[in-house]
Amino acid sequence: MTKTHKLVIWLVITAFLAGFFWLWAYEWLQGSLFESNNLHLRMWAALTVLVGFVSAGFILFQRYLFALFAGMLAGLSFMFFFGINPLNFISSAAILLLFFHAQANIKEELAQRTKINARMAIRRSVMPLILSVFLLVSFGAYQSPAIKSFENINRLPSSSEKFISTIVGAVVRDFAGGALDPSLESQATDQVSRQLIDQANVFLEPYFQYAPPAIAFALFLILWGLSWIFMWLSLASGVIFFYMFKKMRWFRIEEKDVKAEVLTV
């Protein structure tokens, strides 16, 4: 089997993995994003497998052409589910830079070592890939029904109102020290809560139009805060793929004499 055939097979598998990931990501983004029964763990598992597989491919082929095709497959599969529009096209094209960056990191890592260390090389590539996926997920979330529903709101969500009422109730109870009758305490809590919520709605009304991009950005920050988990899982996945294909004799490691720079004073 020639190197070109191996490259094609690797890209086909990458396309399937990317397709499954974006299919499950699309399903996740159609529901309520933060409900415990809507975590879509299989989507996150597919993410770690996809990133690990592409990272292993970076080591095997060490060509920017592979990074270009892999990035294009990720972007095209994203647009297949989320639609073709200027925002999706630009974001899909932009992640190619992160794929090139990941490939450059691996080439630099391999060039600076006398022995191939798959774990260290893959570790330098997974974070740019995870970042690219999280960016696309955020853009997809921005276009999702769950976030689009915030476009026309003119008051705080009911969950926020309940939170404010809870805080006000605690303050009233602490201030009254149990001296008020329960019915009066409840009445005071309701009155203060309504006034506070009305004032908050008046103050925030000009900014409600920015809720969708703000929520999408908040989702990106949450995902990026959890990126260290996906980094280690993707690293493990990539190392497994590397040694699995080495066992299948897809490649071999040869020893060659190389020149090294030595600093002398």
UniProtKB/TrEMBL annotation:
Transmembrane segments: 7-29, 41-60, 65-83, 89-106, 126-142, 214-243
Sorted UniProt keywords: Membrane, Transmembrane, Transmembrane helix
Superkingdom as given in the UniProt entry: Bacteria
Protein name listed in UniProt: Uncharacterized protein
Organism listed in the record: Candidatus Yanofskybacteria bacterium GW2011_GWA2_44_9
